[in-house]
Amino acid sequence: MNSIFSIIITLLILFSSNVKSFDPTAIEEFPESSFLLLDSSKDLVISETVKPNRMIASIEKYPYKFQDEILFWQRIYTKYPDEIVLIHDKNDLGLIYKILNFNALKKKSRNLVVYEILKNRSLRRNVQKLKNDLKKCDKHCRTNLLKNKKYNTKKLRMNMRTQTGQKDIIARGLIRLKKVQKEISYLFKETKAEPQWIALPFLESSFNEKAVSKVNAGGAWQIMPWIGKKLLPKNKFVDARFNIYLSTLAAIQLLKQNYRITKSNEISIIAYNSGLRTFFKTKKKLNKEKISYIDYLDNAAGKSFGFASRNFLMEYFALQESISPKSLINIKNSKTVDFYISRCKTKPLKVLNLLKRNEANIFKKNNHFKNKSKVLAPGQIYITNVKLPNKYYRKVKKHELKRKAPNEWIKGTTFKTCKII
Question: Are 337 and 183 in contact (CB under 8 A)?
Fold first, then answer.
């Protein structure tokens, strides 16, 4: 009876509030995250890899003009949990108006839906009050709110933004990585990938292979559907974007391609998030054969290159310093991952049930099969450390892992008319 009463009260609050199109996964009007965390785990163990209050010792290696931005994101990832929300300026990340702590509100709220509604209301009130203060900014306002710096207050009101802390979200990502750390280290070793690239799936999704973005980017590496079709098996029966091993290999090939085109490690990282179109436009605008990432960030423009794109590299730098990628990608302590291409028609459910006798986590390893009961055409990728017969399956060679995206492996496979069910 109490639970029914609780649901009724929650519904009354929902429908009586002025919040429109409320989404409990994000703060309406102030979205801080591009992905939806679909992980159901409630347990959180803060990893020592994310060190609270740790300042970046090597901040001097970054250009001075970007240091405030990198430090801002470093604090977001290592200092503030998701009950903390910062109200700040978009263009000057050193200008933080207010830090709000919703921990008490979360504890006393009836459930997470009510908590999000109340938090959203509080954010709206605080943002509106700050905008009103800036509208009639006097000497006291300039001293306390703006720290005696000269700003255009009209622009400040337009550029106000909120950012939720990510410390516990990143910590959950580290827990997820730990389960496949040896295998991911192996893939990085075989593909000669940069260890620093492991920061990208944390930046994109907090290493959540179940994550789906508002624009339908999927998996830990947040690969868009059209890119997924080029690099990975993706159809109505299979979507390898959600397989951590296959998506990691695809992302590595995409990053290598970006580097070949941009000739810049930093711009290849930015292009991973926002694509290469802005790069080509900026390069043409500057009329240079090669441009630096500083030139790129100073001159890039367009609707598709907004706050998220401009800050992506700074967030990447901050995460690199926060999670120590070289310690996460341990090449000496790696575990082999083998990939096989089916030469015949196969039914994944039958194949995986047979393999389960020798490999307990085989279904998790092969989660790219959406419909496991369907008989699929030859050319399916199976991931297993059980040696499969060459008559029916071709093992993907190491040089293919290094040079080719998973979708290209099929080219070296001879198919047969047999059928395995």
Answer: yes
Q: At 179, which helix (H) or strand (E)? A: helix 167-191
pLDDT-wise least confident of 31-40, 52-61, 260-269, 346-355: 31-40
- Distance CA(165)–CA(172), nearest Å, equals 13
The number of beta carbons lying within 10 Å of the beta carbon of residue 261 is 15
**33: amino acid identity, one letter:** S
From residue 8, alpha-carbon distances to 12, 23, 256, 357 in Å are: 6, 19, 54, 48
User: Which pTM was predicted?
Assistant: 0.84
Angle at which helix 307-323 crosses helix 167-191, to 10 degrees, equals: 80
Which amino acid belongs to residue 288? K
- Give the pairing type, strands 345-346 and 419-420: parallel
What does the radius of gyration of the chain's CA atoms come to, in whole angstroms? 24
Specify the residue for token string 């192996």: 186
Element containing residue 266 per DSSP (H, E): helix 265-274
DSSP-H helix ranges across 293-372: 293-299, 307-323, 325-328, 348-355, 362-365
pLDDT at 320 over 70: yes
Helix count and strand count (H, E) for the chain: 18, 10
Of the candidates 259, 280, 283, 281, which has an alpha carbon nearest to the alpha carbon of residue 269? 259
pLDDT tens figures, 272-294: 999 999 999 999 999 999 999 99
Total Cβ atoms within 10 A of residue 399: 9
Question: How, if at all, do strands 84-89 and 339-342 pair?
Answer: unpaired
CB 357 within 8 Å of CB 112: no
C-beta separation of 241 from 401 below 8 A = no
The C-alpha atoms of residue 360 and residue 368 are separated, in whole angstroms, by 17
Beta-bridge partners for 161 = 88
Q: Which of 183, 196, 206 has its CA nearest to residue 77?
A: 206
Chain position carrying tokens 């740790």: 54
Beta carbons within 8 Å of 135's beta carbon, 6+ residues apart: 153, 157
Q: Which of 45-54, 70-79, 89-98, 269-278 has the lowest mean pLDDT?
A: 45-54
